[in-house]
Amino acid sequence: MPVNPTDIFLRLPRSPGIDDLWSSQAEALRAWFERRNEKDIVIKLNTGGGKTLVGLLIAQSIINEHHGPVLYLSPTVQLVSQTLGLAKRYGIQAVCYERGQDLDDKFLSGRSVMVATYAALFNGLTRFGIAGGARDIVHLGGDYPRRCSYSLCEYARCVHSFC
Hints:
It is a single chain. This protein is of the alpha/beta class and 163 residues long. 44% of the residues lie in helices and 16% in strands. It has one domain: Rossmann fold, CATH 3.40.50. The chain is globular and about 40 Å long.
């Protein structure tokens, strides 16, 4: 499995009307890939600039490289649903966090990204194994991630923020 997120994109099935990454997406992925072993990387793209796809490709890259679980965070339930829909459209394996349910085996085994809200993470730190260890976290959104970045850094080994 490729680790470079651009290579991952090139291997995905194409939906009608989707031919290539936008130049801003390709540049963001290239810059992230070069610095992927650093902590607290922030990627800034304009509204409508394709942050969700960039985040999903980075999450898949982390899974491919480390063979472990990756949690993708969004600020609202509506954005979680949108992210899951986009993942399905692109053929990226993603599962939804279900409150009160066991964590999906595909997530735990590193075969699928788990998509959840920030509240799910902060209300379930031990559930996600963060209080006693590290998980890779990708999170997306507007002002909320900037306010939460410090808290996430306390609990996670690798945080990638998309503003």
